[in-house]
Write a structure and sequence with these properties.
homodimer; Isopropylmalate Dehydrogenase; 2 domains; 11 helices; binds 3-isopropylmalic acid; IsoPropMal-DH-like_dom (chains A, B); amino-acid biosynthesis (chains A, B); metal ion binding (chains A, B); branched-chain amino acid biosynthesis (chains A, B); magnesium (chains A, B)
Chain lengths: 337, 337
């Protein structure tokens, strides 16, 4: 396996080291290339994501990313729009996969372990994330600013099919989340596509809820969900809430997947670079390690994925109240393998 | 006071009766006109909201609405786009006011009473709610569908000013929620407007968070919020989550306000028409009664607003575990006045 590693900024470098440690332990011989994308390189070279960067990434089977961003040094938005989102678009990461599970040993104010176990399949290359908007008379009392959500049958169908595949391999339930009562055009396309694709998956029960109602269900009854499929912005919103209701984003992993296999997919923890605690080995690498699980599974190393997942579960079930450093947690998970 | 009453569908009629009962008890002599808008009238006459309806509403000082919708009889979206949203647009209800409070006696899995007390000022006439979108090649593999968020300096500034006024009368903290790192045009307009208007309110502390981060704060630390100002769609999402974290939408009241005073403002519970429990007097009228409080306050009847609010608080603090019928709750609140 040729693995591209983008440790990034802040705690990104710390948690990525542990994820790599775990990968090396279960799958010896991974060939790794490190890429120094992020705030530091940007400040040094003014490069965000060059064509050469993208070409180099394409030489790899998968990408492991830590976290990008340092709001103290780079204005908010610059790295997001110049690096993170361009990566998703350049590598056609249309399936943004975000599992939500309350693991044994974890605490949530809202549920018991086992009650929360769903996957959000968030579209990653369309919607309001396409930079399709503009403004006139900026800074005057007559300013008008627009943002346009772009939705195509091609883009929606491929992610909906991916979600149905995942539902069929899980508990056979798929929930579309949208706001079809207001967003008639985009919502209509999503709704019709789900209905049509569902004919190919007669065993999968299809459900729908509006994004606002989804907020209430995620708090009051998260066990109603198995696979949620939704657009780019709704997926962004839902997955942070899902992280909060599963007791924190400490275990929230994600994959940015090109389901066609043309480009390498990218795996990263949902959490950010947390500059406030960076450099102190205080970060929890569990989400990064669970992102490595998604990576292993995506590349067909199912046995290794299960081994790591089991090790993480056993670690979470048995960890005491003591604070552990980032490498201590990585070592404990390696020991549990 | 000339009051327009739109009981609407399902439990809407039941809870509105109790809100009217309470209004009559604190402010004798209110002149009421009932309007039969909703699913029933639509099925009977095919009318959703006519020009004559709007003209008739304009003859009133305020509007009390129950709930609109009956998904068993009218397809989802029809009444929303034909009646509810046109009401907001025709009457220029640009301030969609949604207080969130955990009242004494109420239970939330996430907080203690007193810890949650914030107000969402949601823009009500712009954003993704303007019906500004379209689609080509509908139903073909080449379908493209768009939804455009419309934001104007005029529209954003008036709602931002309203939010600052409310913050200055509360705990002096205003949080803008948006997604400025992705929605550069719309987000930029909101961000700049808040910064500029803040110069007129030096005593109000200004805060910003992305919509995804707001999800986490609303679950983990809702007491950080005092006044939240946000756009139409983000406001829709946040207020349902706020309802869930304050232990249910049973006390979630709202106002659709034309802050210029040109048109009558409209007050309604956030909950829907709940056809499953309609006709059985099982609905909790508290949110409708708290909407009447917002109505009284909006029209300058502050003493009466406080009386009803105190009565609701005392009712919530003292209510036992017994289920009470809709009119029993209304009567108990009247008795507590
Ligand atoms: C950093 C930001 C652009 C990004 C997003 O909105 O997708 C993040 O919130 C995420 O969820 O990965
Ligand atoms: C019914 C629907 C159109 C409406 C909205 O989205 O504004 C509702 O969810 C609300 O919050 O009042």
């Amino acid at each position: 396996m040729k693995l591209a590693v983008i440790p990034g900024d802040g705690i990104g470098t710390e948690v990525t080291a542990e994820a790599v440690k775990v990968l090396d332990a279960v799958l010896p011989g991974i060939e790794k290339t490190e890429f120094d994308f992020g705030a530091e390189r940007y400040l040094r070279t003014n490069d965000l994501l060059t064509d050469a960067d993208v070409a180099a990434l394409r030489e790899h089977d998968a990408i492991l990313l830590g976290a990008i961003g340092d709001p103290r040094k780079v204005a908010p938005g610059v790295l997001e729009r110049g690096l993170l989102l361009p990566l998703r678009f350049a590598l056609d990461h249309h399936v943004n996969l975000r599992p939500s599970r309350l693991y044994p040993g974890e605490r949530s104010p809202l549920a018991e372990p086992g009650e929360i176990d769903f996957v959000v399949v968030r579209e990653g290359t369309e919607g309001l994330y396409t930079g399709n908007g503009g403004a006139i008379r900026v800074g005057t009392p007559h300013e008008v600013a627009t943002e346009t959500s772009m939705n195509t049958r091609f883009g929606v169908e491929r992610v909906v099919r991916d979600a149905f595949e995942r539902a069929a391999a899980r508990r056979n339930k798929l929930t579309l989340v949208h706001k079809t009562n207001v967003l008639v055009n985009g919502g209509g396309l999503w709704q019709r596509t789900v209905t049509e694709v569902s004919r190919d998956y007669p065993g999968v029960e299809v459900d729908y809820c509006h994004i606002d109602a989804a907020m209430i269900y995620l708090v009051d009854n998260p066990s109603r969900f198995d696979v949620i499929v939704t657009d780019n912005l709704f997926g962004d919103i839902i997955t942070d809430l899902a992280g909060a209701v599963t007791g924190g984003i400490g275990t929230a992993a994600s994959g940015n997947i090109d389901a066609s296999g043309t480009n390498p997919s990218m795996f990263e923890p949902v959490h950010g670079s947390a500059p406030d605690i960076a450099g102190q080995q205080l970060a929890d690498p569990t989400a990064a390690i669970l992102s490595a699980v998604l990576l292993l599974r995506h590349l067909g190393h199912e046995a290794e994925a299960v081994r790591v997942e089991d090790a993480v579960e056993s670690f979470l079930s048995n960890r005491g109240e003591d604070e552990m450093s980032t490498p201590e947690i990585g070592d404990a998970i390696v020991a549990a393998l």
